Amino acid sequence: xxxxxxxxxxxxxxxxxxxxxxxxxxxxxxxxxxxxxxxxxxxxxxxxxxxxxxxxxxxxxxxxxxxxxxxxxxxxxxxxxxxxxxxxxxxxxxxxxxxxxxxxxxxxxxxxxxxxxxxxxxxxxxxxxxxxxxxxxxxxxxxxxxxxxxxxxxxxxxxxxxxxxxxxxxxxxxxxxxxxxxxxxxxxxxxxxxxxxxxxxxxxxxxxxxxxxxxxxxxxxxxxxxxxxxxxxxxxxxxxxxxxxxxxxxxxxxxxxxxxxxxxxxxxxxxxxxxxxxxxxxxxxxxxxxxxxxxxxxxxxxxxxxxxxxxxxxxxxxxxxxxxxxxxxxxxxxxxxxxxxxxxxxxxxxxxxxxxxxxxxxxxxxxxxxxxxxxxxxxxxxxxxxxxxxxxxxxxxxxxxxxxxxxxxxxxxxxxxxxxxxxxxxxxxxxxxxxxxxxxxxxxxxxxxxxxxxxxxxxxxxxxxxxxxxxxxxxxxxxxxxxxxxxxxxxxxxxxxxxxx
Length: 501
Description:
Keywords: Ligase. By secondary structure, this protein is an alpha/beta fold.
């Protein structure tokens, strides 16, 4: 199965990452004063005006100190305002940032050496991990054997550096880890811009949002799936590290409107009875990425937090997020990552033969690279190493890593219910719900005597967690239009679930 759409990033074929992200960052007094990036625990932050001015100044300072286009610069920093500043200062100087946070010192040294990084930007207490022969270090703070990063901030204008977005690198990053070998990924400006624009125009985040993210900003998903799209839109991005109780305090303190979290944190929140002690009324959505999340865990977290939980998926080689399910509650697909963002091409193949898999049959998810048509490299299909299946509507369900024990893909509740011997027709439609906003309800036309309880029990035995169906209603007819599509409003009226004045 292949999904494709119009890639919004194709409208920006000549943009560098810095221009795409910070091109209008300091424009206007209101936006200039708005927080751009903050650290959740310490409160350190930079406004858009400060970030734009210091990025230009630091880029000019790096060029003055001998950094040349194409040079690789290591970044060993905590996620937060300093990381965003260093990242975009290096890029604006025409150099290539290489974030190496969260890795053992020996591995960092090997990676920086193999990448030819002769300069690194670091943090007090972390400098030891990036020291190397003839490597020059700039540090945010006092650290023996380093130069202060502040010395780069001379107030000079941003340098004019020739960049070919389709060919020149904008990022070197690490991916893999505990579940597989560590590998480096090299991404051009065109690929990075494509990735961040896809997310920025998907509707996950808006300019008025405060986005609290527990995804490491040093990884591609956090960097180009949250930080860069958020900055492009003018949102405030808050970097978080810690456990669930620290998370709840941070969500309340920063009045977060969107939280981007890994699945373990979402699962923990769904079981945490202390959630009600915190004022989370500003939180309008949770997005989870970094692994599959079961529908029942998403539903439990949504009920606790009082907002929808949506799943996203991406890989470093595709420059961030490729799939985002913004209609999970409406469609009753809380365990799906969605259909794929515009411009993303994907397919599910048999892991041994490479043949395309039919709907509901698990296989390996592959993504076509480069995602953007502006990249000057041959296109190829990349196996992601993730097991997945797609339903008849093109929605992708990620099951886990290929080769690991995994559940069989669930069927569609509508088809399963219609197969019951006493049911002649069935449909599933979203119904307003006080806790979830919308929840999937099933509707059945029966020909023999049966009960709602019998039908719910039937769904229980054929579908894990009933695929989210919370109720079954018996109706005399499923109203459909001439094309066979269910007329949802008429169906709800027949079942007595229509809107009340």
